[in-house]
Amino acid sequence: MATELSLGSRAAPDRLRRHAGKILALAALLVWLAAGAPPREVFAPLWEWSPALLKGFALNILISLLAIGLGTLLGLAIGALNLSPLRLLRLPGWLWVQAFRNAPLLVLIYFTTYVFPFEIRVAGHYLPFPDWLKVTLGLALPASANVAEVFRGAVASIPATQWEAARSLGFGRGQILRAIILPQCCKRMLPPWMNLYAVITMGTALASLVGVHDLIDTAQIATNTVNRVGFTVLIYASVLGLFFAYCYPISRFTRYLERRHAFQ
Amino acid sequence: MSWLDAFVQWTGWLGLDYRFLLDAYERGSFVAGAWVTLQLCLCTMAGSLAVGVALAAALVSGRPWLAGPTRLFVEVTRNTPTLVQLYCAFLVLNMLISEVIGGANPFTPFAWVVIVISLHKGVFHAEALRAGIEAVPQVTLEAATSLGFSRRQRLWRVELPLAVRFALPSLVNNLIELVKMTALASAIAVGDITYASILIWTQRDNVLELMILILLFFGLLSFVVNCLGRGLEARLRMPGYGH
Amino acid sequence: MPSNDSCAPLIALRDLHLSFADTRVLRGIDLDVQRGQAVSIIGPSGSGKSTLLRCITGLLRPQRGQIRVGDTAVHELRSDAEFIALRKRVGFVFQQYNLFPHLSVLENLTIAPCKVLGRERREAQDEARRLLGKVRLEHKEHAYPGELSGGQQQRVAIARALAMRPELILFDEVTSALDPETVGEVLRTIRELIEEGMTCVLVTHEMRFAEEISDAVYFTEHGVIVEHGSPRQLFNEPRSPRTRAFLQHALGRGERERRPLVPAGAAAR
Questions:
Q1: Pfam families, alphabetically (chain A) (predicted)?
Q2: Which of A135, B41, B124, B132 has its CA 20 to 30 A from that of C50?
């Protein structure tokens, strides 16, 4: 702008401006419902299939929760290893992080699915090792590598002066970590960790490619069974919508945390 | 091909089965897959950068009718799985297009992968560029204005050169993510390196061996992208401003 | 208005009003600057001094009032082209230097003459080198702004403004962001410009400097001109009690905390 005009109150256009996208989407949906008028034969099968779809999505969420839980535990252990003053201990951690951060998610999922056996023998009993659990492992591996990185970044972001100050007070290395550094790290780790969780959740969609009966697999079965154009459009839109409804609030909350952190 | 023999023999000692490399057909399909992945990477890199610039321009345009829908598109793309987006494009859009124009649908699976990944990563580029543009100090732009720069001159001589410098690290990261994302092409049977490997390991049951090759291949690609990015960052570095 | 008012002033502000949202920053400003004069504007922080300068070069638009720069009625300008024509004639030096960090010192000096005025590159470079010599930075032409000290950056910024061969230069608190050691070198550069007859308007907190170099001094507070006159009159016999209170505070502090701001050698030139 060549000149900045200082205007008075701009509240009303501002609201319109901020919600323009949402208003437009809503309008498009209304127009579609009114004009396109999706007929009953499209919505009826969707209603019929919705329990199966929701069950599939529940499996996606279960996988994501297990993967992030496992990945976090593993990642923190590796992160702790990476903090060690001994080079020999840091090396395997570094290798782990490099290998699993730079590998495509899909390739890792293929890896765990095809390399692990379908059942494991524990104390004479054969325990089934289902595909969805293998996918969980396949997602937990990159999750752990990323958690380790997030952890390292958080520790590095604590100013060195705090280490010095604590050392001058006579704290030992372990004490400084436990009492001073780690409590601050937790707060800094939360936004990137939640970001990672959203990524892992979206990664669960790949489970369908190795035959896990998740949301997308169910949607594919449904479209092949019903075999109607309108239904196909609707069901994939619903899949998109379900993932969005789950991940968008997470990303909004992450952004809120980041902003709050930035202003502190 | 004696060194291939030697390699297969040597890895055989380690318990790894790379005998497919001695089969001309299977070796050929693996190499072809690697070449397809490379083509995918190059096409989507160019495509995603173009999309990113366009979306960033829309986001900072200050026109609500343009920025609003773009924002919506950005949020939906960021918060849904790429695989579902690929299906929506390849299974739904492609089907609708085929219905409208009949059998002569010009969109191949390869094209759909390029389009979807370009749009997906373009969104992330756009966010990086937007942040870069917002990081340009207002006072620097004011200085350009006070020197009599026109809007266009100010944009091309001051605002964009600075914004790209601020955004470059994120852009390079996005491109590395993009390289990994091209593995998704195998989901709709585009013959990339992953797909070629699947075909081989279903025959020979040597998953681990191929997995190592794939990971090395993607690692190499990421490494190259990273090096190019770092090189560019060094070239565009502003002395005295450490990032 | 100034006493020796024979010809039309180069800058004339009449009844200038400007508010940001609910804050009234300028509340009726009148100010005249003759060609070749140096005019200082002093006053407490937040009294609208910088806003005033930005209005003169069209970076801000007042809600009411008239601004004339030579024949140009700035308050009537609308198109970008008209503003660009104005800004070619008016140099501006910022508190924070605002050099372009991605360009070398020489490029900072040549980009506007080449791109805005359409001068030849060679010619612009020769001129830029001459100007760098003038601000005593001829050895820094290949350096980048981030590698220079604050005082050096500010001198480059002055040279950048001069490279446009402007009719007048506006200085917006150009020493406020500097380390005390580098203030002197910047003031020396400005002093030399004034001695050469460049029309200058300075917003400044350097009272001693303003007193020494100005032809006229304006004191602003709360968006109005409280008092103006010759530096001798305003600094020694202020008419308004507001001016007196401000000067007492400002000079008292200056005397205690700052070393003499005028390098002894420079004053003799």
A1: BPD_transp_1
A2: B132
* Helix, strand, coil share (%) of chain C residues, nearest 5: 45, 25, 35
Averaged pLDDT, B76-87: 94
**C102 closest CA partner among B148, B168, B50, B128:** B168
Residue spans of chain C under pLDDT 50: 1-5, 256-269
CB contact under 8 A, B143 and C99: yes
The CATH architecture to which B2-235 belongs is Orthogonal Bundle (1.10)
pTM of the model: 0.81
Mean pLDDT of B200-213: 88
**CA-CA distance, B33 to B110, in Å (whole number)?**
12
For residue A2, pLDDT beyond 60? no
Q: Taking Cα atoms as reference points, which of A152, A147, A179 lies closest to residue A163?
A: A179
Tell me which CATH code domain C11-98+168-256 carries: 3.40.50.300
* Backbone φ, ψ for residue A102 (5° rounding): -95, 5
The answer to whether residue B230 neighbours chain A at the CB level (below 8 Å) is: no
The pairing of beta strand C199-203 with beta strand C38-42: parallel
Domain boundaries of chain C, sorted by first residue? 11-98+168-256
Which residues in chain B touch residue A17, judged by CB atoms under 8 angstroms apart? 64, 67-68
Pairwise CA distance, residues C161 & C93, whole Å:
7
Q: Which residues from chain A sit within 8 angstroms of residue B97, using beta carbons?
A: none
